[in-house]
């Protein structure tokens, strides 16, 4: 079984540091990343077979697994949308793939943004999950810019168990997430 550097770092030192800093006696109460959900809203582009194939292949290259095509839950006549039509792609990462993706996101993808000064620190929900919007999927190294017609945005949600915003931020900082500096 292959272990990523980030996974080794979490179980090797970060878990103990969090337990000490948050004064948690039980190892099961220590915050940890349980899954990462990546969504790509595509709208009507999935109706075109060729475009759909390109987007599915791009998302598969980014995440390391084939994404699920999400159908519309409601019919909205103003948008020409019928219930069941494909409107987006989603992929849920767990285990080693999750840690590999998180490591790649922190070390490679985020520094590639132009004028990058850190990710927003206010993007936590009440349960302590962190959501990050990426405006262009072309920042991922797996994507060949010559084959991309139009860049698409991604929404990346890092689901953290047994947590709140303060604990989650501490965990993500220890994992290396570059939060913006508030002056």
Polypeptide structure, described:
- The chain has one domain: Ribosomal protein L5 (50s Ribosomal Protein L5, Chain: A, 2-Layer Sandwich), CATH 3.30.1440.
- The protein has four helices and five strands.
- It has helices at residues 5-21, 49-63, 95-109, 165-175; strands at residues 32-41, 68-71, 86-93, 130-134, 154-161.
- The chain has 183 residues and is an alpha+beta fold.
- 32% of the residues lie in helices and 19% in strands.
- The model has no long low-confidence stretch (mean pLDDT 85).
- It starts with a helix and ends in an 8-residue tail after the last helix.
- The radius of gyration is 18 Å and the shape is globular.
- 26% of the residues are buried.
- A five-stranded antiparallel sheet has the order 2-3-1-5-4.
What key phrases describe this protein's structure?
183 residues; 5 strands; 4 helices; 50s Ribosomal Protein L5, Chain: A; alpha+beta
Q: How do the helices and strands line up, and which of them pair or pack?
A:
Layout: H1 5-21, E1 32-41, H2 49-63, E2 68-71, E3 86-93, H3 95-109, E4 130-134, E5 154-161, H4 165-175
Antiparallel strand pairs: 1-3, 1-5, 2-3, 4-5
Helix pairs in contact: 1-4
């Amino acid at each position: 079984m292959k272990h990523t550097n980030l996974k080794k770092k979490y179980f090797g030192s970060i878990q103990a540091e969090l337990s000490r800093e948050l004064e948690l006696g039980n190892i099961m109460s220590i915050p940890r990343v349980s899954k990462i959900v990546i969504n790509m809203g595509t709208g009507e582009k999935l109706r075109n077979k060729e475009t759909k194939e390109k987007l599915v292949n791009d998302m598969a290259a980014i995440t390391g697994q084939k994404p699920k095509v999400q159908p519309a839950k409601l019919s909205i006549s103003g948008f020409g949308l019928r219930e069941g039509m494909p409107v987006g792609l989603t992929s849920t990462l767990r285990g080693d793939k999750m840690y590999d993706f998180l490591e790649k996101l922190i070390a490679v993808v985020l520094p590639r943004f132009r004028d990058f000064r850190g990710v927003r620190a206010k993007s936590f929900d009440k349960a302590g999950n962190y959501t990050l919007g990426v405006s262009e999927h072309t920042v991922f190294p797996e994507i060949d810019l010559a084959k991309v017609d139009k860049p698409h945005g991604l929404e990346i949600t890092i689901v953290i168990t047994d947590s709140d915003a303060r604990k989650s931020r501490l965990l993500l900082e220890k994992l290396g997430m570059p939060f913006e500096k508030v002056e």
